Amino acid sequence: MCGLSKGKTTRVTIDADNLRSEIRDKSVKVLDIRKEEDYKKGHIPGAINLPLASLLSDDSPEKVLQYTQSFGIGDETSVVVYDDTFGALASRVAWTLEYIGHEDVSLLDITFGTWKKLGLEINTESPSTNKSNHSLKLKPQILATADYLVHAKEKGAVLMDNRERLNFLEQHIPGAINIPYRMLASSQNILKPKEELKRLMQNRNISSDSEIITYCGSVGTLSGLGYYALKSIGLDNVKLYVRSFKEWKSLEKPIEKQMDANYWDLSAE
Amino acid sequence: MSNTSVNQAKPDNLPKHKINWGKLEEAEYFAEQVKLFRQGKISKDDFRRFRLMHGAYGSRMTDDYSMIRLKLPAGELYPEQLDKVAELSDSFSIGSAHVSTRQNFQLHWVALEDVSEVLRGLVDAGMTTREACGNSVRSIMCSPLAGVCPDEIFDPTPYAVATTKFLLRNPMSQALPRKFKINFTCCEKHGMVRMVDIGLIPQQVEINGKTQLGFKIFLGGGLGAQSFVGHLLEDFTPEEELLYTVVATVRIFDRLGNRENMARARMRYLVNEMGWEKFQNLVLKERAMVKMVLSVLVKLDVDKTPDVLRKISISSEMPYIPQGYSRWIKSNTIKQKQSGFSSVFLTLESGDVTSNQLRAIADMARELTADGQIRNGFAQDMVFRWIKDEDLPRLYAKLLEVGLANPGALTMTSVVGCSGTTSCNLALTNSHRLAKEVQRKFIELKIDEDDDLRNSTIKISGCPNSCGQHEIATIGFYGGGGRLGKDMYPLYNMLLGGRADEDTTLGHTCTKVPAKRVIPTILKIVEIFKSEKRQGETLDLWMRRVIQGNGGPNIKSLDDIKELLQPTIAVPTKDQDEDFYADYGNDASYHAKTGRGECAA
Questions:
Q1: B96 and A267: CB-CB below 8 Å?
Q2: How far is A219 from chain B (nearest CA, A)?
């Protein structure tokens, strides 16, 4: 949709059929973001395991670059990321790759659980990888810090909180709007069809040239999915506040709350 | 798009909704109106009226979120519709739905900007929110046992559906002085026909050797700050007169209802002020006229095609009967008039059900009910009908897996609680949570197993406005605030002896009970009853005897009960008991706070 004017468009998501043919052509590197024990029980053929916890233990650009090179990912390699957590963990990894300057990264549009339910190929072999070279070209325009957020908010940026509704009501960054991550998914896919996602924005009077900063609870996973949801409908000026609400609170910044209502008692859990 | 699909194959003999009550253009129009409202191009009041007409209330202390009320005529639901409600709640609400006392689902804390998306989704599955709120004819209720009740004369469901078909979006019901409620029931025992604007019970008479179907119709009842019991219009209203009677009543209300004073606008005030006989005459005259004008053009479109009953072929042999089964059977199931089948009532907590539970209920309906449907009940519950008796253990086992196998649905342990301070602007107390607390405690105490208490009910409202139907409970409560010196605490006004059957009675005020003393107070009442009861007497009947002045030597009146409760309801100082001064669900001290009510906008 937004690719006409650009030389190369990166797809935000890829479907199972296309991924399978790219795996057959060996034209793609696939990253599995689940825990090692789950990965060992079976994964998409050829997928390399990068548990999110390993990445988060040190997500400095240098360390991420090291991972990238050890997986044999070069500057031009197509990368596809998947998880079994509605795409949120995969999104965080995809965003991290994008941040160090890797352009061609997409999310598998279904979770591993759905892949399995569909009866698609699974194996337990760990692929061998050859080290590659990858350059480091940081993309600060997709990262928001707390200071940047405050500044951008004053200038009219939209703040989007992707946590669940009740958590949002309990506390959030003042002025944020709430689009819970579950609102982004369809029953089959990690993201709703484009026209539905577009409607969510149109209903909120958010124009396509708005600057939007997404955040969630702690490490930028749910909001990573929010980031890609917005990208999938052609919104380009989107940033991830990757340290999210956990950092915001630790910095003792102002917090807003929906007062005088016992909404938690509606939960039937 | 992927050519692979995760949609699992479902049996192809599943019934699907027959009527699509929804309209896509209404969802689209709603989205447009929200945008105009946000741009300041529609006034707040106009927008509120519009929003309510489409089933969206404001939420507690904020109009940025809505409580969306679905309109589910006769409480009828199909599995695909439950799946849709679950999906919409996951996406746009809080991952659960709430069954109201009028058979509807409510979705809470939906962003105003997403209401139109929910409406769209509902249309996909044949549902609507149209005229679920506002000054309209609200969803027409019908007993969840209609069609299977051993005591019913005929199934009123097709009439409830047909009346909805006539009234929904009908210009005559768009701007009434106030909301208007119609209930059908199967029999005297299972309905609430004397506490609504129009209540109907199936009847039949022999005329010249021919059987004539019709209804007993009650008019002018209703619960609220001031409640009234409905009056019988005539001994027998033939089915051909049903539509004209309804139209005549709505027209009189539309013409003469009090549009000046919102608090006196419901039809029951008109009936009360005018006097029943005068109102009755007006309705009968109006009906004659309506009939002359309309009968050539308008007939009620009653579809009596019976539901297709599927053959359920489940191997029902269970390796063992799960624990708690016999207790559950006794308190949650009713034998249908059709031999070999039972109806099963699910015990929810204050009507709350998670989206995962909704999906599980949908699957159970697909697998185990012959009619492939679900009905929402009158008491914030959900009902499976047409379960083969031999499948009951299997159903129980499935309910256990998803936390829906609590006993007590048809007993006093199943407590009604309105949404209270969890979402309602008018609420003074957290009645929703209190109802859950009472229910949990009473299940723990196995109150559901006590035959003396089975017929009794506990209903709790968070304010005097009766959404929790406290006036028709054996033990009813409505929320308020109390004060000791400077310190406020949450309390409930307790009413005793209400009932909604053929002896419909409104509860009598007994005393004020602090919120944190409600549970011990009910237990104390049970204790007094046990020491006073005659052989075989149940709590509700003892209560009636006391109210009628026929109590025993110790308890002659409600005042005597009040006297015995004094130690239980005594108010400690804040230093003695700080928790007493906080409502359920709050750590901080209680303060009464309300916003503007919307029932009447």
A1: yes
A2: 22
Residues of chain A contacting B430 with CB distance shorter than 8 Å: 262, 265
B90 part of contact set with chain A, CB < 8 Å: yes
Q: Give contacts of B61 with chain A, Cβ < 8 Å.
A: 258-261
List, as one string, the DSSP characters of B394-444. HHHHHHHHTT---S-TTSTTS-EE--GGGT-TT-SS-HHHHHHHHHHHHHH
Out of 3.20.20.80, 3.30.1330.10, 3.30.413.10, 3.30.310.50, which CATH number does the structure's domain B141-294 have?
A: 3.30.413.10
ipTM: 0.93
Assigned CATH topology for domain A141-266: Oxidized Rhodanese; domain 1 (3.40.250)
**In order along chain B (601 residues), what is the average pLDDT of each group of 10 residues?**
46 81 98 96 95 94 94 98 97 97 97 98 98 96 97 97 97 95 95 95 95 97 90 97 97 96 94 97 97 83 86 71 95 97 97 98 95 96 96 95 97 96 94 97 97 96 93 97 95 96 92 98 98 96 94 92 97 96 91 70 36
Chain pair A-B, CB pairs under 8 angstroms: 116
Q: CB B559: neighbour CB atoms within 10 A?
A: 11
**Do the chains contact at B2 and A17, CB–CB below 8 Å?**
yes
Among the four given CATH numbers 3.40.250.10, 3.40.50.300, 3.40.50.2000, 3.30.70.920, the one describing domain A13-138: 3.40.250.10
Structure tokens at B538: 């149940």
CA distances from B344 to A143, B328, B330 (A): 55, 10, 10
With residue B20 as reference, give the H or E element that holds it.
none
User: Which residue ranges does chain A devote to CATH 3.40.250.10?
Assistant: 13-138, 141-266
Smallest Cβ–Cβ distance between B432 and the set A110, A177, A266 belongs to A266
Tokens of A83: 């998880």
CB-based contact, B293 to chain A, within 8 Å? no
A200/B3 CB distance under 8 A: no
